[in-house]
Amino acid sequence: MFISSLAAVWLNTALAGAPHQSAVQLQQLQQLSSDNARIVRFASPEQARLAAISLHDALLGGHWQDSSLILQLDAAAEARLAPYAESIHPAYLWQQQQAATTPQPLTEGAQSIPGYACYPTVEETYSQAEQLVRDYPGYASWHKIGSGFAKTKRGTGYDLYVLKITNRNSGAANKAKLLVNSAIHAREYATAALTLEFAKDLLNKAGKDADVDWMLQQNEVHLVLQTNPEGRKIAETGVSWRKNINDTSCNSGTFGVDLNRNFSFGWFAIPNGSSGNSCDLTYRGVSAGSEPEVQALEQYARSLYPDKRGPARTDAAPDNTAGIHIDVHSFSELVLWPWGDTNTPAPNGPALKALGHKLAWFNNYVPTQSIGLYPTDGTSDGVSYGELGVAAITFEIGTAFFESCANYQANVLPDNLRALYYALRVNTAPYLLPAGPDVSQLSLNTMADNIARNVPLQLKALVSDSQSSGYNGGVASQAIQSVELTLDQWPDLAGSSISINATDGKFDAANEFISHSLDISGLSEGRHALYLRAKDSAGNHGPVYARYFTVTAPVVIKPPVPDFSVECQFLRCLFRNTTVSDASLPLEFSWTFAEGATSTAKDPVYTYNSAGTYQPVLRVTVAGQTEQHSKTLQVFAEPQLQLSSNCQNLSCTLTASASSVNGPVGTVQWTVNNQMLSGQSVNVTFAAAGTYQVVAEVSDSAGQKVQKTLSVTVTAPVVVTPAEPAAKSSSSGGSLGFGSLLLLCFIRRRAH
To answer: Fewer CB under 10 Å: which end of the chain, C or N?
Structure first.
């Protein structure tokens, strides 16, 4: 079903102002978006994943993880895909479900997409961004970078804006740039919401979070929240709209240019990497960079980044190139990097792979080069990586174009915020820093970030060189080599740093816990910043991790009253430290057991040499002051029990020999075939041959009990069967035998 060119023009014109499409026109667009829907099954999830990359324009539903996708395929596309698919059938059930969903015209002033309260409209996105600028003037600014097709051609439509976030009052003169654009494909609802929430989270933490503060001092974040605002207005009604609204070529309801096939670098570089049919979903446009939305993004990227890559396809950007460009799409749960028009890795391929695998660790997506079953061209990474050498990444977030708010808020948003933060963390050197270790589980012994000046600062953390997706073999990790700490100075600028040791005493693994006690008595009262950075055995530095803490006036410190409990099994005793104390106090523990034996563990285990009465002592020290506590402990030895057996056929005599240095022993208790027997020696007859487990137990006068098990093997008696009587011989044989016997007797008699 198609709508007339007149209707298409009307629709575009209406979009330029307040969009009020009729229900009939929206239903027609909805029908077009589900025509030729096919359910395609593949031999493996891997094959389906490749199809989801190559045929992202045709993707309607399904999950590649299930080896099945719903794709919109015309006859030519179906024929091209057939060699890669196990089966292709009409998706009747899916079409019926879509037909039951009616597009909803937008009302004047709508703040969210109908049915999706978590996704702001274009107008509301811009309104909230402008409010952020008013709320955070020291960090945020709002810049027009271009206009959409309708606004450019007719003067009424939507502009493209960048929300720029950085510390506008401090930091380097030439900061590294993180460029993130979203919603270049109009129907990808969650993408613009994610980047807007990233902006809100950054600004909310600015001035309070040490990591965010150094990131915004050293970086600028540039967010193109709505890259295709005019196309988005159609998608906001519930129509699965992908392209912009350029109607100059196609007279059907599928007009528009696929903006992610229109970028100048690599435009129409390969056969079938995009479409020359203006009504196709991957229509590349009349020329490279022909669309105003693409022109705006390309020009803005060129204004941010110097050209760091040579003219040859094989020229790599320098390893120290700063900046990342992330194009946020949905859906498929993928992290992608160049090239997408060839299987050949990009010149910076290993570094891009390391970055992609690190990002995928945070959002738990699959990292891979952006080549699928067949290549694509004219994509957004062309200007950033292809032209300028900037690390380019594409996120395919979530599991649907119209992602449910429940899944978006529970999974898509938090997972990808973590990934975006990591991108910002390594943005100053994205080709280098992802190869190095990361710091996590960082904790300080502060209370509400406060610590008294006379209390040592206790730091604990996990340092990992393997915090990376292991998909398809992952990226090699190395052992941690060193961890450095600096106070109130960036590591590269600090005159000296403090070396942190591994908790187990040696850096020899890819994952190491660290701990350190830091004397802060010389620090001024007020807020201070702590910076951590690790290096692996290959010499790769990881990114910096930071925390604020506030030093307060000294306090009177009195060690808590020590206390402990003991549980012993014979000579082996477990000491449990039950001292109640302020969690912020860096307590030191010291134990004395016996015979000069000591320990500094919190809950040690000690084995005494012999039974007796002892006085273990626990000492608790803080800030040079010590309190101690002791208890009387009676330790008993293990009773001795030896077992033996003497078996004849199925009957056995079981004997026990028991003794104890603690005192007299009682009667031995036996368990044989679920029967209870008593005595130092017992007799038992088993029902059948075999091996049996016999358990004996004895207690001494001190209440100490020991149990032993004896394995007993018995055999059945040998039964002797009488020989059968000899059979009678025949008459001839019998006569011969009798005659022979008489002859033998005669010979023996003559011999005597």
So the answer is: C
